[in-house]
Amino acid sequence: MLRRYSRKVPFIAWHPQTMTSRSDNRKQLRARRRALSPREHQQRSRALCRQLINHPLFRTSKRIAVYLPNDGEVDTRPLIERAWGMHKELYLPVLVPYRENRLWFTRYTPDTQLVNNRFGIPEPEFVHRKRIRTHALDLVLTPLVGFDAQGNRLGMGGGFYDRSLAFLRRRQHWHKPRLVGLAYDFQQLPELAAAAWDVPLSAVVTDAHWHRFEERQK
Q: In the predicted model, what is the mean pLDDT of residues 144-157?
């Protein structure tokens, strides 16, 4: 049983008139996410991490890309600590210095030195010798601003994950890495228009549910 949260999140009615653009959806959902109290943010994040840790996909994955939270995103730190305890290899996204809006994935351990990138998000300082080929990852856990029932993802608008995982769209059969979004349940939208460059999600884990979309990728 998930704990009921006493503090109400501001309600936003999702109807066709309000869904005028992806940027409007992004603005409203980010505001709703940031409206969570610190206590509720922690409770919801821990509930999500418990769901993910107990899932076979997580348990069978050895090389996992995670992220460090920013702008009210789901707090992955409980998940990271548990994954280290399970002897999994963790990797953080790093901005590629010479290619616009692309990511490398670099090994992340308790001893990794972090520096803030141009967005103020911590990332590993020394990356070249600890990078992994994206194809070699088993699981990529990605933040998101919104998602729909078809596995379409609304990100921050930079296209970093879509560009870095574009090779997955060219595959006839869906292989690793699996792309799983982490979100609060209220971030689900009725529908998102998919762009040609969007990489669909395998699943989204929220504080209340596990949403699977893999049948769409076969």
A: 87
Tokens 């501001």 map to which residue? 10
Q: Is the dihedral of CA 42, 43, 48, 49 positive or negative?
A: positive
List the alpha helices (DSSP H) in 2-65: 22-34, 38-53, 56-60
For 9-23, write each residue's pLDDT tens digit. 343 444 333 344 878
**Complete DSSP assignment for 131-164:** EE-GGG-SEEEEE-SEE-TT--EE-SSS-HHHHH
| Whole-prediction pTM | 0.84
Q: Into which CATH architecture does domain 22-217 fall? A: 3-Layer(aba) Sandwich (3.40)
Sign of CA pseudo-dihedral 121, 33, 38, 208: negative
Beta bridge partners of 204: 181, 211
